[in-house]
């Protein structure tokens, strides 16, 4: 048997340290050998919860099945891991030590009879690995990571940037990800469009982290199913929904009124709901649908919810834009997409996303004194129901290169949860990195066009209320 025993002290409350470590999927963020980890049983982490952890070996990988044997909140967790070559019992205890938390980590490895004679040979390397892992855990919990800036500075180029939209872009990008140990337990997060796709994946990831969610959906049957699935898979019961068709300003207005009446501070607002409309269509209120859903709706919702954002300690707004915006220049006169025969759903969509990006920058500037951080992200290309229905040919050709909804949603979750994501405002992100907002000179708008956008949206909001 080989026993590794390490301790670490971190300046974090014991509850946050326990929550981070007992969610053993975080092992992929700090353990020096863990490559991937997932929880394989539904619900809260408790006795009986299982995790699968894929670890690197000097040659190849090994998959360990972990089982929680003992769990006493803020005190101890014992996990037993099994693979073909060995089994391991991890005993992790937590103690308050002044303003610090002390973590005591003991791992006892028992090797299979065929490997046992080689134990002495492994010992030194394993001790080194144990030290490195607990150092990694302390570093993750210290949470002092800088913001990642893009590696490739210099000329703006469309093609290399677009190649990063694929799942390969995500897989290269994630090599630079830092651990995300900040606690969002009990934070109130509002997400629009969470019945499917990126919104659902975001809701699931944030629910696992203990956030209180208000999900905005338009279809009651889908909303009931989503809430039921989210609650049972994450064990988080603090998830509710509000019904609203966000392309209708009357629904946006009544949603704002309802949430304001309820009065709960909003820590994070995620403007995610979206769709691509082909052919051109108008709402019953007479607004072109892309304009209504992708721009006027998040404008009115965010402006309307600003008093609740201001009530939070460190509020954040996250606008979901699209790489399609790189092809479009802000032109306020075209935002209602009255192009007649020439109407294209993709162009209409990209125009509204470009305008939402400009709005992100303008809000960030104007709301800095209120302490509201406003950022945008684009998810690359992710295989969601939206892409399946609106872009079937694109999906057919690109399928092998599309990201999963979870990969597409990763930066939304990071913008909502990571400490360092609250340090900048008015930026565009892809894969947790700040990206350029223009890749072509011809898409740069003038200062006059930006202020025209603000006037236009303010007028439109008044005339449709
Ligand atoms: N997937 C990508 O590759 C990609 C790329 C760039 C940007 N984006 C952006 O990412 C966001 C999420 O996209 P997705 O791919 O996850 O799309 P999705 O699978 O179609 O999901 C969109 C969500 O928005 C909701 N929604 C649509 N219209 C609505 C309305 N009028 N009122 C209320 N909710 C409405 C949908 O609800 P229903 O289920 O009721 O339809 C659904 O929950 C969008 O803003 C999209 O523009 C996606």
- Proper CATH architecture of the largest domain: 3-Layer(aba) Sandwich
Approximate strand percentage:
15-25%
N to C succession of SSEs: EHHEEEEEEHHHEHEHEHEHEHEHHHEEH
Q: CATH superfamily membership of the largest domain, which one?
A: NAD(P)-binding Rossmann-like Domain
Name the overall outline: elongated
Structural overview:
The chain is of the alpha/beta class and 465 residues long. The protein has 2 domains: 2-142, START domain (Alpha-D-Glucose-1,6-Bisphosphate, Chain A, domain 4), CATH 3.30.530; 158-463, NAD(P)-binding Rossmann-like Domain (Rossmann fold), CATH 3.40.50.720. It contains 14 helices and 15 strands. It has helices at residues 14-22, 27-30, 119-142, 158-163, 167-173, 197-208, 220-234, 249-262, 289-310, 345-367, 385-390, 392-398, 405-417, 447-463; strands at residues 2-10, 34-39, 50-56, 61-72, 76-82, 86-97, 100-111, 188-192, 212-217, 239-243, 268-271, 316-320, 373-377, 428-430, 433-435. It has an 8-stranded mixed beta sheet with strand order 10-9-8-11-12-13-14-15, sandwiched between helices. The chain has a 7-stranded antiparallel beta sheet with strand order 1-7-6-5-4-3-2. The N and C termini lie far apart (72 Å). The model has no long low-confidence stretch (mean pLDDT 95). Bound molecules: NADP nicotinamide-adenine-dinucleotide phosphate. NADP nicotinamide-adenine-dinucleotide phosphate is lined by residues 193-199, 218-219, 222, 245-247, 272-275, 293, 320, 322, 378-379, 381-382, 384-387, 408.
């Amino acid at each position: 048997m080989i026993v590794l025993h390490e301790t670490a002290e971190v300046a974090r409350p014991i509850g946050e340290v326990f929550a981070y470590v007992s969610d053993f999927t975080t092992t992929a963020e700090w353990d020096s050998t863990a490559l991937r980890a997932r929880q394989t049983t539904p619900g809260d982490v408790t006795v009986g919860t299982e995790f699968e952890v894929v670890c690197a070996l000097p040659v190849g990988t090994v998959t360990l099945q972990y089982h929680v044997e003992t769990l006493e909140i803020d005190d101890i967790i014992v996990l037993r891991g099994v693979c073909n070559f060995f089994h391991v019992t991890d005993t992790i205890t937590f103690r308050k030590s002044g303003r610090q938390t002390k973590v005591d980590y003991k791992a006892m490895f028992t090797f299979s009879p065929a490997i046992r004679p080689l134990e002495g040979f492994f010992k030194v390397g394993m001790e080194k690995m144990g030290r490195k892992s607990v150092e990694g855990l302390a570093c993750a919990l210290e949470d002092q990571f800088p913001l990642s800036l893009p590696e490739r500075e210099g000329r703006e180029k469309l093609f290399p940037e677009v190649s990063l939209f694929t799942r390969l872009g995500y897989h290269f990008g994630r090599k630079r990800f830092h651990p995300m140990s900040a606690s969002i337990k009990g934070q109130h997060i509002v997400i629009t469009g969470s019945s499917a796709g990126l919104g659902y994946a975001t809701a699931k990831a944030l629910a696992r982290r203990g956030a209180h969610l208000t999900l905005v959906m338009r279809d009651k049957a889908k909303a009931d199913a989503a809430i039921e699935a989210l609650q049972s898979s994450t064990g988080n019961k603090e998830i509710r929904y509000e019904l609203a068709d966000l392309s209708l300003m009357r629904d946006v207005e009544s949603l704002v009124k309802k949430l304001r009446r309820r009065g709960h501070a909003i820590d994070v607002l995620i403007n995610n709901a979206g769709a691509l409309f082909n052919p051109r269509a108008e709402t019953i209120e007479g607004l072109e649908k892309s304009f209504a859903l992708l721009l006027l709706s998040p404008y009115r919702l965010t402006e309307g919810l600003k008093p609740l954002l201001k009530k939070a300690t460190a509020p954040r707004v996250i606008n979901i834009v699209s790489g399609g915006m790189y092809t479009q220049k802000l032109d306020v006169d075209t935002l209602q997409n009255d192009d007649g025969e020439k109407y294209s759903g993709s162009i209409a969509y990209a125009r509204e996303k470009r305008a939402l990006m400009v709005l992100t920058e303008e809000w960030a500037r104007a709301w800095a004194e209120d302490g509201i951080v406003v950022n945008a992200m684009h998810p690359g290309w992710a295989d969601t129901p939206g892409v399946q229905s609106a872009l079937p040919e694109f999906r057919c050709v690109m399928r092998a290169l599309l990201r999963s909804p979870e990969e597409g949603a990763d930066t939304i979750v990071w913008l909502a949860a990571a400490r360092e994501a609250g340090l900048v405002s008015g930026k565009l992100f892809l894969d947790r990195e700040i990206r350029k907002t223009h890749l072509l000179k011809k898409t740069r708008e003038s200062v006059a066009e930006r202020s025209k956008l603000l006037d236009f949206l303010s007028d439109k909001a008044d005339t449709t209320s």
